[in-house]
Amino acid sequence: MGRYVIRRLLQMVPVFIGSTFLIFFMVYALGDPVAAMFGDRAPDPATAAQIRADLYLDQPLWKQYLHYMGQIFQGNFGTAFNGQPVTELMAAAFPVTLRLTLVAILIEMIAGILLGVFSGLRRGRAVDTSVLVFTLVVVSVPTFVSGYVLQFLLGVKWGWVKPAVSIDAPLGELLLPGVVLALVSLAYVTRLTRTSIAENARADYVRTAIAKGLPRHRVITRHLLRNSLIPVVTFIGTDIGALMGGAIVTERIFNIHGVGFQLYQGILRQNSPTVVGFVTILVLVFLFANLIVDLLYAVLDPRIRYA
Amino acid sequence: MRAATHAKWATGALSFALVATACGGGVGSGSEDPGVVSASWGDPQNPLEPANTNEVQGGKVLEMIFRGLKRYNPRTGAAQNVIADRIDTKDSQHYTVTLKPGWTFSNGEKVTAKSFVDAWNYGALLGNSQRNASFFQYIDGYDRVHPQHGAAKAKTMSGLKVVSPTEFTVKLNQKFSSWPDTLGYSAFMPLPRTFYSHHDAWVKKPVGNGPYVVESYTKGSAMKLRKWAKYPGSDKARNDGIDLRVYTDNNSAYTDLQAGNLDLVDDIPATQLKNVRQDLGDRYLNQPAGVIQTLTVPIYDKAWNKPGMDKVRRGISMAIDRASITKEIFRDTRTPATDWTSPVLKTQGGYKAGLCGTACEFHPKEAKALIKEGGGLPGGKMTLAYNADTGSHKDWIDAICNSINNTLGNDKACVGAPVGTFADFRNRISARKMAGPFRAGWQMDYPLIQDFLQPMYYTNASSNDGKFNNQDFDKLVNEANAATDTRTAIGKFQDAEKILAEQMPAVPLWYQNGSGGYSQRIGNVSLNPFSVPVYNEIKVI
Predict the structure, then answer these.
(1) What is the rounded distance in angstroms from the CA atom of residue A295 to the CA atom of residue A121?
(2) What is the domain range of residue A277?
(3) How far off is chain B from A40, nearest CA to CA, in Å?
(4) CA distance B298 to B308
(5) Same structural domain for residues A189 and A289?
(6) I need a labelling partner for B250 at 20 to 30 A (CA). Which of B94, B139, B419, B485 fits?
(7) A46 in a domain, yes or no?
(8) Contact at CB, A54 and B129, closer than 8 angstroms
(9) Which residue from B minimizes the CA distance to A28?
């Protein structure tokens, strides 16, 4: 187990270097960002050259990359164009997005697994069919549609919630954005759970458990659910990374100043330190989430061993 | 039983989430101070130094916390003395500036001649990388502190001399009669000593001399400004303060306004323009702003500059149905342009409706004939370049192309040519890689006719993106700048504009309006000629 974890951690090093380089290269390929800092007017060449020198943009790509990586290992993620250190932006943005992601993950886990279990156990009946129709509708509605519609109905029309999240983004205000963000994944979790439960409900160990005379809820939670959760856990694990980075649309609709906002701003201004820094952290989150998922397999299914 | 287990599990997870993210709290959100107005904002692109702020979001803050020698009247746009008592000159080149006594910064420091001279020297010095450095280019000695190549050879401009705490002299490197009227621009604001001695702290919480003081500033999210009770000027704040909130999407700001969580938005999303009158009634603002949109023709490209092409350029202008496009696409938030300036200048400032004549009107038949007479479009077709990342330019570019195609009876004559990002778009323009006309928006720096003509059409001027060059035009601009009498100067500038009407180096499209909306909680809201709300005049009802 320990050796397995160490091996996995070592594998992350090349992935980390490769992904940072790719992102750095892609932002670089967008072209010279200095021209956009002057709006619709042509920049004064001397000032533009000075800014390029300040931001290390006058160097060739490989030098810029080495300089940047050198900084990262000293804990310095560079400076955004508005003069703010990127670490400061991260300290402001990641807690907000983390909270939003947790709200979304909780909603999709609780609602998704519950719905999945109910419909899986009542396969082919009215509950099952209506849940399937519901998930189909949810999957087919894009996030920005559900986001704007729910925001308008709950926020403006009925006035139940604030349509935009305030700057501190307290948990209560993140409920609606969390639901919007969770909706699509929720449908997938429901369907995965349902299929898995429906399959395993006829497995031998379930029949054995029932034959032993165990109470129904114990059969379901201890035996059936535990074995059926493996694909669901895989999905949710990878979904953490996707939700953190993919919240751009939701964050824009509800004016949440999280990772998506900073990434969007960074790409628009071609600010490579911001984009590379944030994506690097997201890559790490993704890698760790995957590692934890793999370790969770062993917990859920004792037959799986890591060496 | 099962429900109970789930509930326990859920509360456990939730409390974990709360603990894990507890660090996010802090400043209380949206203090419901009754006299404070909340307004939408965008994250300023650059640090909030006056000589480093060249876009409207940072400009909003500077307008609240700074007052300079002059200020542009929010209604008429006229440059009026604020801190300046007199700005005298005999030859339009040597100026003596006398300050009014009694002005201080909000930290108590006196505003003196040195506050101005030091701030201008800081703004011009190359090593400070200030985006607006070129605004000091007319001051003698600028070429030494800000050389085109290499490092600065001097730290201060020789043209600026402090005579006494209330007087300084300025020597320009050319005659420039309307130079005093440029001094209302934010780059020319005075700065306190703490700007230099504690620069990082100053940028985190700027200190100025305007009607508001910064109470707190959370970069990228919000700024709280409060009324400065001891403000010595006559334009005191009529509310207790302004809370600026950053919105990434103008749609969310508009929704927040509708829900009553926000008092003022200064950018109505294009998709809401058709509902806005119904939603807001007379709380919808739609006022002219000092912005003109044009299609700049790459004169540097031989294909667009051979003999006869002036007719083609005029023909293209006459093939555009400006009235329909401004009505259908922009819902009257743009007005068809009939000269190269802006209505905010007013007639006495040099705006002249109809100066362009028939060349800026929609005459499809004549247009077709003119284009044919001039030799036709280069290669039989043209592209209109625009940046696709912001501002939904595609709609109107396509509409213009449709209008041209209909005029010429050829579906393939004109197509839009999107460029991915604004930076790339600007880079291609600077590198002279544009194969056809491209969109250009000009937001004035100061309400002067000079600012609409010289930077864009004077030979080798800073924003002359099409590289238009015409000796007669240059000569008239020089004469206008040297004229001591405003009326003569404006006449010369308008004569210069008539050359643009013949040569058509840029096709004027429309004058842009500023738009905004506000809640029932506030009143006396208006936009200034720069389409920035006049914050200090807003009253809370």
Answers:
(1) 28
(2) 90-300
(3) 6
(4) 15
(5) yes
(6) B419
(7) yes
(8) yes
(9) B424
